[in-house]
């Protein structure tokens, strides 16, 4: 773990290393991914079946074999423990309520001369959600991708998820039933992204692809971008914490480790003006590590990519955190809302001592699909808007076009576009 | 020009050809573009200067040579004809007023147990706007890219535009001064996109790159996507018109040609249930063509990529247009707003007989940077939102986390993430 002070002589070099965290070297896999995409575009399900045989170690016998039956999803849901079922319903309801509040509305404005200008907001026709399989098959990811698409009003929602050894994750199937998803395909990796982007015999071509994934999935999403829309290109998970002496070091330690346990590549960074807190958190991290079932992953992550930075004051801490632009940002201070105006870049901001990042992963309501690796400087959390798009609305009356048509024709003429000019002039009186 | 009826035997094949319009074969240029990007990343301004010597036929002597002076922009503005100056100011004011109305707001909602959930909307720190040079250097493009960035509140706005033979377009310089843009670089093509994505000695690295361009620019934008955000990947311009017998065939013809004059690759498509209108428009197109200075381009575009489709009724016309998802859509019917609920996909919708598409290119207010080639199915017009991003806001009270913490911990445990679980449990009473 990096344990540094902003006054250290080599601070800048260390800090640059943190800024470079989570960079994915897409170039290393782009040829492989390009070939996969081309194979799916050419041979569709035939290629999909070959990729499944190779990567997931089972062989689909027919196109129908690629799809999971709604019966098996219903059964998985019925088999859920009652308490877990209730917890997932609570999560579903809260996530839905939050996303309904963020749904954009069509609007217009009119002018006295008869002009109407506005924006019409429409859902995309279809969305494809990628949900990783195997050890990273999280039902919460399904909820977080399906619900915004449903709230947007997307008519066709499909899910692709790999099923190694043809053994679907029962929790994921149960979550599909709970969400009312019916079209789930046992297809993973770059092949799944290509199948959803271009369509196969029974997997429909979609307009938007969202969802997390490894470097192959991320690279495939980047490659199909333009032919479909995608949410973002995401890397390993990460947390930043801004804390003062009012923070509980035991809580800070487990919060940092809650990211570290995800992935050896995850980053966990505490920035505080309190040397005392920094020292105590360091000790608590070791105490917690020894109790964690995922100790091995968490330890590697925290040792290689964790950091505690002590600053001169909170202003400096915030300034550094804005440069980091973390996926998750906890603000564990006495008066966290007072700092909010100065926080510029973070995927999600968790304010106060009672708001651990994990509450946002499952039940708080906001989406847990968030920009990583500093891309919070320009990407937003996954949301309803990823599944909607806008059309400008323009309507002029005869009076309105006569009022500003001359100016329009003049600019068009200046740009040398006389058909543009004439299309306005023919309407002037 | 394709002149067809939806009842024709070969209609489907013809229509598929229209759906495939404007597909760019990025693969043909991707190696070239990748090399350009790598050269700029490695050698920065040294590589930029070499590319300028090669493509723009002049050789910058210093880093400062790459930048256009604010004095020359002010001078170009002063030299503007008074009427044109007024027209550009009218355009600026109307575009700004429209974009201010679409600016998203931060919001929050609270719950009686002490929960606060919301979204904070923040501008990106910096934006790079690409404006094509030479024959396609349009001051209107500058306004349409700069204004949404300014309304968003972006602190650093830079512009890159190629200046063949080191001769900047005076109109563009004047528009820069009018908009208050001060950092303008004489750099074009894929090199410019790479310079803005990764930075050079004097061109700052930005967070978002927007603006139109040829296939090299489009490919470069796709390649840097992820390291920066981009608006969209746009191809040749296009117009779709839905019209009934109330439409003026002379107006319809010049409206179609106003797209055709842009580019030989532009598409202009009229769909109408009226055979009479279709026949008349065909004649009017030829009449207009002979009067246009850009006849050669417009004729090639309309002959090779233009279409008039006659349908059984308006419902069928709308259904076909939704599949086309045109960049610009004119609705030239008696009661255009009655059709609006059925129009699903279009970049901008121009309603009624007094609303030619060209009015939206310059002075109406909405942005003229719009999704092309059917991507209106998932992309939105360029807008203020392209220069802003969101952070989720989550704040729980002790009471609030105690109310739903148990459910959260249960889901985390089920997913095997015990540090997540513990980070919640330590806060429960």
From TrEMBL, chains A, B:
What role does it play?
Catalyzes the sequential NAD-dependent oxidations of L-histidinol to L-histidinaldehyde and then to L-histidine.
**UniProt-listed Enzyme Commission number(s):** 1.1.1.23
Fetch the CDD domains from UniProt: Histidinol_dh
Q: Which family does it belong to?
A: Belongs to the histidinol dehydrogenase family.
Q: Has UniProt tagged this entry with the keyword Protein biosynthesis? A: no
Give the UniProt keywords, A-Z: Amino-acid biosynthesis, Histidine biosynthesis, Metal-binding, NAD, Oxidoreductase, Zinc
- What highest taxon heads this organism's lineage? Bacteria
Its UniProt entry gives the catalysed reaction(s) as: L-histidinol + 2 NAD(+) + H2O = L-histidine + 2 NADH + 3 H(+)
Which EC main class describes this enzyme?
Answer: oxidoreductase
Cofactor(s) listed: Zn(2+)
Q: Which named protein is this? A: Histidinol dehydrogenase
**From which organism does this entry originate?**
Sulfurimonas marina
GO molecular function terms here?
A: histidinol dehydrogenase activity; NAD binding; zinc ion binding
State the taxonomy lineage: Bacteria, Pseudomonadati, Campylobacterota, Epsilonproteobacteria, Campylobacterales
A single GO CC term, please? Answer: cytosol
The gene behind this protein is hisD
Record pathway? Amino-acid biosynthesis; L-histidine biosynthesis; L-histidine from 5-phospho-alpha-D-ribose 1-diphosphate: step 9/9
């Amino acid at each position: 773990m990096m344990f540094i002070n902003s006054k250290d002589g080599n601070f800048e070099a260390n800090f640059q290393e943190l800024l470079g965290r989570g960079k994915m070297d897409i170039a290393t896999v782009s040829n492989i991914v390009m070939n996969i995409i081309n194979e799916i575009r050419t041979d569709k399900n035939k290629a999909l079946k070959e990729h499944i045989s190779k990567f997931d170690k089972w062989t689909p016998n027919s196109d129908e074999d690629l799809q999971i039956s709604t019966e098996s999803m219903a059964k998985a849901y019925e088999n859920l423990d009652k308490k877990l079922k209730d917890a997932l319903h609570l999560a579903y309801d809260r996530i839905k309520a939050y996303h309904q509040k963020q749904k954009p509305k069509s609007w217009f404005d009119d002018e006295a001369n008869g002009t109407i200008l506005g924006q019409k907001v429409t859902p995309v026709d279809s969305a494809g959600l990628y949900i990783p399989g195997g050890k990273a098959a999280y039902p919460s990811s399904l909820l977080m991708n399906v619900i915004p698409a449903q709230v947007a009003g997307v008519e066709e929602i499909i899910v692709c998820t790999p099923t190694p050894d043809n053994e679907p994750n029962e929790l994921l199937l149960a979550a599909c039933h709970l969400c009312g998803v019916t079209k789930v395909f046992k297809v993973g990796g770059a092949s799944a992204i290509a199948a959803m982007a271009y369509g196969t015999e029974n997997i429909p071509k979609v307009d938007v692809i969202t969802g997390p994934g490894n470097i192959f999935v991320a690279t495939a999403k980047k490659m199909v971008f333009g032919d479909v829309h995608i949410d973002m290109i995401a890397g390993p998970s990460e947390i930043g914490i801004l804390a003062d002496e009012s923070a509980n070091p035991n809580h800070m330690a487990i919060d940092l480790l809650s990211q570290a346990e995800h992935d050896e590549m995850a980053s966990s960074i505490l920035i505080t003006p309190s040397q005392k807190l920094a020292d105590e958190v360091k000790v608590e991290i070791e105490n917690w590590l020894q109790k964690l079932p995922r100790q091995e992953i968490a330890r590697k992550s925290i040792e290689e990519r964790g950091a505690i930075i002590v600053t001169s004051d909170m202003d400096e801490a915030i300034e550094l955190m804005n440069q980091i632009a973390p996926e998750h940002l906890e603000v564990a201070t006495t008066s966290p809302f007072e700092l909010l105006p100065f926080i510029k870049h973070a995927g999600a901001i968790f304010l106060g001592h009672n708001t651990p990042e994990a509450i946002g992963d499952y039940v708080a309501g906001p989406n847990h699909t968030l920009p990583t690796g500093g891309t919070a400087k320009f990407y937003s959390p996954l949301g309803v808007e990823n599944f909607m798009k806008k059309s400008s609305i323009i309507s002029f009356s005869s009076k309105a076009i006569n009022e500003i048509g001359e100016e329009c024709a003049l600019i068009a003429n200046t740009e040398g576009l006389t058909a543009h000019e004439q299309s306005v002039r023919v309407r002037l009186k």
